[in-house]
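seq:
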Amino acid sequence: MKINMLKIYTPIIVALLFVLFQYGCTDNKGEENTIQAEVENNSVSIWTDATELFMEYPQLAAGTENKFLIHLTNIKDFSAITSGKLTVTFETNGKQIINQVEEKPLREGIYTPVFTFPNAGMYKMKIKLESLQASDEITVDNISVFSNSSEFPKTKNEGSAAFPFLKEQQWKIEFATEPVTRRTVQNSTAVTGAILPLPQNYVKVTSPFEGIINVTKNKSMPSIGAFVKKGQTLLSVSPSADASTNFLAMKKDFIMAEAEYNRAKGLFEKKAIPQKRLDEALLDYESKKASFDAVTSEINYSNENFVLIAPIDGYVEKINFSLGDKIISGQELFVISNPTRMMLRVDVPETQIGSAINAENASFIIDGLDREFGLKELRGRKISVGSSVDLVSHTIPVYFEFGNYQNMIKIGMHARVFLKVGNMKDAVVVPKSAIIDEDGLKTVYAQIEGESFEKRIVKAGIEDNGYVEILSGIKEGERVVIKGAYQVRLASIAPDSKIGEAHVH
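struct:
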């Protein structure tokens, strides 16, 4: 029987060739990776008023395809740009060489255009974003294109304390950065306080007479929480017979007193009566006018009904009756509050009376409202300092008036107050939220590039109005993490964990 030796050895030969081929490819790829590892890739980070650009791209050679990774973040909330047209142009020697449009990002926040440069040289890159989230135009200078890969600069193996925290991680959390700035700060004394209404902006509306609240006549009565204007109708009351009689008698007495005063003036001008008689008529008229005005400033009287009106602009805080109730004179019916301006009462320990007397400004923090309020920014002012010490708390009250920020601050809230004392000074500052206490050391996280961060130990000084003076550890103009600092800290502790895992583009 003939044996076809070619059939027997063919599988063996193929296997040997495959192994040799794989070995050769692996060896060449390793050499290629070694060459690539020696080449330094490029990255660009630019922050504007609208966006943050973080761009990565390889060393560029003319005549080859080059992929750019363009990460775009909406600076308003540090979220990824999820849609919108991106136009990219390259210019050299004042002439536009490349113009390319990407209709949408490949994935949320990331555009991946590919460019082929016809010639080596220095290019200017212009990026135009047109999105509902943000619109921006960014210029990147000095984009180098080489003739071939042999001209690529080699990696500089310099030590760095930076660690990665990728855009994909930043976009998934509440995150924000801010440049280190200079601002005026002032030392302060920490005390406690409470939010009170201004007396003229907090009114209890009472019934001037006895009567019944008619159901059918009060169908449009304002409800709790409704805003009412001064003079607006609040409530219609059917007065009792005595109330009606008393009001008409009061009105009659006022009219008669006014007439008598006018008659006395005429007689006095003719020297028919003495000054004493005129003064008596004036006193009676003013007394009856004050009583009548006090009633009519709160009610209108028509068709045998009293109509209570709002004495100030404000919100209806309380309604202390039900339709159909019988009410008595002096009964509290409504509470109306105008929160546009309020009062801060600060309780200063008697041992710090100097702060109470000398402080003309303050800031305060209220639990539940994520910010520190400065009285100056709220158009506030100091009203007065109490004249006596509370015998129980041994504190002195200090009163400030201020404008209510977006009507967020409510009557009765408690506040941590910082009375400003000493001289103001110009200082390098970061927001208080940027600072993390790590084993007793005050730490901030600086954003070196879009995805590169450094841990900085800082020396802090004065804390004022939500900002902390930085004496050392970071410089003006550097960017620090002000939201999400804890997650960035986790990435610094475990750089190989999923918190800082590599891109998948």
